[in-house]
Backbone:
């Protein structure tokens, strides 16, 4: 029997966690050694290995029906544990794929050789490795919390696990999988740990996420590379043109100049903006941490917290063209390229935003070049309620392990599957992450604090208990 007295179960589950901390960490380090880079076909076998590793750990933890579901891309790992129809069902979502480690030369240790080091923000130590925080470390917390509750006979909810291998490339095949498996994935709430807290002494729950429109642009000038001495000054340089076009997309106040871009942006009331800015933010510490002279991005009429959460953005994520090898080559290139992402807020949509960008980019191109816009992945923004049973359960769980009530906070990143789950499964999501924004996810030296890893494992069982209790009393 899996349901036992709460006071006994609390102690027993925590005792199991305490006794197995070193093993939990060792297993995570082994998983992080697998370079599960979904964006690069060269790592296809490694992505499969990472999926198989997770499959075995779910089986060992006590999950039933553990299966690798093939997709047109990388497989989805599924497992469940059904106890009783009288109990609520929680679907745990995470991803085992990771971002490319480039530029590798900027890592202080190899990205797939996990190293534990102490830092100012992680005095107890942090795991430095690609995927440590996003999202292997956070997904693994759920497997270990589940294992601890199973060993203690203390599982107050039915659980389902859906861990995918394509989140970092836009979850291209998840939509099809979810729509084709509505009965398999039926649940009362989706629990996700792919977000952050404000600080280790300031717990928070993410209640909003920005959406995404991601495009690649190509600017073509002459039909071949040219000698810059012979043709320079007479033929337009595609790199120069591309830079001018990109620069024109922001005005002097930081606003995006694409016509219609802000038409669907949902504004917040002064009271809502005031509440958002109550979250701790040290302007000087922020600049010092990033070694920048000023916070210079975004719309100047909004605070940094607002710019990174409730306002849309347009950023160049990569730009290239011409000669970039060693030494000098005086060439006027034929082509120039850039990857551009736009973070979206309610009620913007990726489809409409991509169309607006394409129309504008084509309209501002001078006749000296040809342009091409290729859409990549996108995702819808999401705002989650703070008066739901799901939010209350998560808030109480964090309060128990952190000793203080969490702050509701809007995140600047994008998790497109949130809107997918809410639409197709007709349930709410809880974004209960434990990383820090300063953990350098997607960057060299990504890391995840040991405090955060263990705190997540300790907190997750509380969420299940609180949620079961709330639903029983409803």
Residues:
């Amino acid at each position: 029997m899996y349901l036992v007295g709460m006071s006994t179960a609390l102690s027993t589950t925590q005792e199991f966690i305490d006794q197995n901390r070193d093993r939990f960490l060792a297993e995570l380090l082994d998983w992080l050694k697998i370079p599960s880079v979904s964006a690069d076909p060269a790592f296809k076998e490694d992505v499969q290995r990472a999926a198989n590793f997770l499959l075995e750990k779910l089986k060992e933890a006590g999950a039933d029906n553990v299966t690798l579901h093939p997709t047109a891309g990388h497989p989805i790992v599924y497992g469940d544990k059904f106890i009783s129809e009288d109990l609520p069902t929680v679907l745990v979502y995470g991803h085992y794929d990771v971002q490319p480690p480039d530029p590798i030369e900027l890592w202080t240790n190899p990205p797939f050789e996990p190293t534990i080091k102490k830092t100012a923000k992680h005095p107890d130590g942090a795991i430095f490795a690609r995927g440590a925080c996003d999202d292997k470390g956070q997904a693994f917390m759920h497997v270990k919390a589940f294992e601890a509750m199973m060993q203690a006979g203390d599982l107050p909810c039915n659980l389902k696990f859906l861990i995918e291998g394509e989140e970092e490339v836009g979850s291209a095949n998840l939509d099809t999988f979810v729509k084709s498996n509505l009965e398999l994935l039926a649940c009362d709430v989706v629990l996700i740990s792919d977000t952050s807290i404000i600080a280790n002494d300031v717990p928070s729950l993410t209640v909003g996420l920005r959406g995404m429109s991601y495009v690649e642009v190509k600017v073509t000038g002459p039909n071949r590379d040219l000698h810059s001495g012979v043709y320079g000054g007479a033929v337009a340089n595609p790199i120069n043109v591309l830079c001018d076009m990109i620069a024109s997309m922001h005005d002097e106040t930081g606003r995006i100049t694409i016509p219609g871009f802000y038409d669907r942006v949902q504004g917040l009331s002064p009271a809502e903006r005031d509440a958002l800015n109550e979250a701790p933010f040290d302007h000087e510490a922020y600049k010092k941490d990033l070694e920048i002279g000023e916070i210079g991005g975004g719309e100047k009429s909004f605070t940094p917290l607002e710019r990174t959460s409730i306002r849309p953005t347009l950023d160049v994520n990569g730009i290239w063209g011409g000669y970039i090898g060693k030494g000098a080559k005086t060439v006027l290139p034929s082509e120039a390229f850039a990857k551009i992402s736009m973070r979206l807020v309610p009620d913007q949509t990726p489809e409409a935003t991509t169309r607006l960008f394409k129309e504008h980019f084509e309209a501002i191109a001078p006749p000296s070049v040809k342009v091409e816009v290729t859409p990549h992945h996108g995702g819808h923004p999401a705002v989650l309620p703070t008066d739901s049973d799901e939010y209350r359960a998560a808030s109480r769980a964090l309060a128990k392990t952190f000793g203080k009530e969490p702050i509701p906070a809007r995140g600047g990143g994008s998790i497109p599957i949130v809107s997918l789950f809410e639409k197709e499964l007709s349930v709410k999501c809880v974004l209960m992450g434990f990383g820090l924004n300063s953990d350098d996810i997607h960057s060299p030296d990504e890391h995840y604090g040991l405090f955060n890893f263990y705190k997540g494992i300790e907190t997750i069982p509380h969420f299940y208990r609180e949620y079961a209790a709330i639903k029983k009393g409803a």
Notes: The domain at 211-265+312-379 is CATH 3.30.70.360 (Alpha-Beta Plaits). The chain has two domains: 6-209+381-473, 211-265+312-379. The radius of gyration is 24 Å. The first strand starts at residue 64 and ends at 69.
